Every structure is written in structure tokens, then in C-alpha cells.
Amino acid sequence: MSPITTHVLDTALGCPAMAVGVTLYRLEADGAIVKIGQSQTNADGRATDLLPAGSLPTGTYRIDFDTAGYFIRSGRPSFYPRVEVLFEVAVGSEHYHVPLLLSPFGYSTYRGS
Q: Disulfide check for 92: which of 8, 56, 61, 69 has CB 3.0–4.6 Å away?
């Protein structure tokens, strides 16, 4: 499994958010932003294949969620066309699970397990 995973739950509908585009970036020390992975949430709302299994370099990462595409496909208006979550990898051998709780007009995130 990827050392960075996510799970998107649609809290307005009370179900997993399927087919949400997810892109993973690493922020380099020189300010460069490097795309390192891309996936789409499955029927359970999970993206577990962003990276190959293994450890990560420590540093800052960003996950972008294509929320506009998800809400357009579901026929609902929304306020946030994209959600960007920045987080720090402090220990490269750990697993980092970054869930997104999503509704058309709000979201929250946390470090899961």
C-alpha cells in the first residue's frame, strides 16, 4: 500500500465520495512543487495507490482533491472547487492517512491511521 493514503467521505449524503480526483505533490526546499502521484477514489471513497509501497523522504506534501468534478457529477452546487491539504512527513517510515470529510459548503481533515 502507498505510504500516503486518503479517504473521502461525503458528510452531506453520509456515504463515501467515489471518483474524486486526488493528486499528490511534494514541496521542495527550493520552492518547487513536484507532482509525485495521482489517483481517484474508489467505491469506498479511498485512494490507496498514490505512491508505491515504501518509505518517504521527510518534508512537506500537498494533496489536492478535485471537489468540483465530484459535485458536478452528482448534480449539486458547491463552494470549494478544490481542496488542498498541506502536511508534514516527519518520519519517513510511518504511514500517513489524510482523510477528507466533505460537504458542498464545508470540509475538514485530520491525520488518520
A: 56
The pairing of beta strand 100-103 with beta strand 4-10: parallel
Total domain count, the chain? 1
Fill in the DSSP letter of residue 14: T
Which domain, by its residues, includes 93?
A: 4-109
Per-residue tens of pLDDT for the chain, all 113 residues: 899 999 999 999 999 999 999 999 999 999 999 999 999 999 999 999 999 999 899 999 999 999 999 999 999 999 999 999 999 999 999 999 999 999 999 999 999 98
